[in-house]
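Final report, results section. Input specification for complex C-07:
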Amino acid sequence: MTSATAGLAEGAADSTSNAMSHAIPTSDRPPTSTATQWWVLTIRVITPTLRNGEVLTQIATSIMFTVGYYIPLKNIMGAFVVGMSYGQYLMPLIALQAVAFAAVSAAFRSATDSVEGINKRFKAMAIGSLTPLASRMSASTYRCVIALATALVCGYVIGFRFYGGWLHTVGFCALMLLVGVALSLLGDLIGVSNENPEATVPVMLVPQLFFGLLSVGMQPVERFPEWIQPFVRNQPVSQFVYALRALAGDSADVPGTVTWANVGPALAWIVGLIAVTLVLHARASTRRN
Amino acid sequence: MAAVTPIHDARLHADVIPPDPWSDAGQSGRHRLRRHWENSPRRFFAHTWVMTARVLRRWIRDTATLVESLVMPVVLLVTLDIVLGDNIKAVTGDSALYGSVPLMAMVGAMTGAMVTGISLMRERTDGVLARFWVLPVHRAAGLLSRIAADAVRITLTTLVVMGVGMGLGFRFQQGVGPAVLWVLIPTILGLAFTGAVIALSLYAASTVMVELSEGIWAVLMFFSTGFVPLAQYPEWIRPVVEHQPVSCAIEAMRGLSIGGPVMRPFLEMLGWSAGILLLCALPLAIGFRRASKRG
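Structure output:
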């Protein structure tokens, strides 16, 4: 190629790039910050829930857990609960089950995304590796907030009250949402790993009901057979219930004492669960690259 | 060079050549090809059997269905026995298993139906339903094969739950005949629930379908006479608890195992099953046709 044609080619390239830069000025280009990407992907998950009735079903399931546990068990279990109403006693478990159910939806959503190939598409795009996960977690937190708010309203109807100060009330809600995030992370991992939406629901629901029923959320530990009492006392749901009860208080006379002894184990379970799940998430994402 | 092997095909001989399918001048459209018409009653059973076997094979290879159908009711049965067993025995004098074993058989029937719904949604999205629609497969086979496969799944689940229940102390005190009928009751009501879940899955968004069906079975479980005795519910809700479909099935199964009224709850349960299926039949047919034509 002669120097003249080379010069022409360069000129053409320059004019093309100039034309392109004039067509889309740099200042007008949409920002591609991680925060924007996170927001767009979060809205992508949240928007359909407002259209397809998912929010209503989330509210309905929270109500269902309240009436489903409280009405049948009030007479048969309430007699064994001393020092507080059965509504006050049961409320932490109801809220935990409602939030855990929101995490089941997270698992189902991530499995559906995986099987439809959306996650692979994200990996091929200029998106931070943790941004899709962060957006799914934000959407799950939104679901957990709805579940928790509904559960608290239902709890108020059955006689639950916050007897601690406003700080304890905030602590109760924060701990509930932390549990929700931990369970959503776990659900998301299950969904991403098995890429089978059918499998996510039972894999999440069986432990939810098993740990929920075999916890101090329904009846005092002394009411369980002696051989299973150590498990019931120390399993994570029971530890969450102990912490939530301490934050909510028992009655107007006993506002509840929050100590490391009753809140520490719950926080340890949450931190441990989040840490392990994040490590497994990282392994799952590298394995699938 | 190797010799070319002649093809020996009986159809090449003049005496066994099938009649020309186009020779029926008096008939038009698909009826002209009567021998090849996929919607003939003769094809119905063969096609439904093949499709049912396909669904069952998929389930056997799928962990989700096994967990949902077998592990979940068994785990819940053992858990309920630990948590509520002594309390209920103290109140009623009878073992709680005569309520909780039938309840868990019903839960197994209902929760497994949800997996059927989700897998149907996936097949719709993947275009499998549309592919079957353009193949010479009997139109009713696709839908009825799922219901037939569910009948097999529910019966197996009931037998597994019954076996675990017997390990915990559940016994049939009324003989073999009632025991056989006991096993069939969850299948009857379970198929009605399957019909409802499939109908829901053909119209609703996937996450909504999952949450709604889970919510429905949980309500039916918590507000049934298998969870806690009827007398333990507040008076205002007892009529609802007593006459809801799962309670009717449980009471009939209780009567067939330990003794008590059977006919009234059994007929009530049959009425519920027939009502649910009749209510879902038209939406099911229309929804399945629409889902199959999409894509």
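Chain B has one domain: 40-293. Chain B touches chain A through 47 residues (CB under 8 Å). This concludes the modelling results for the funded period.
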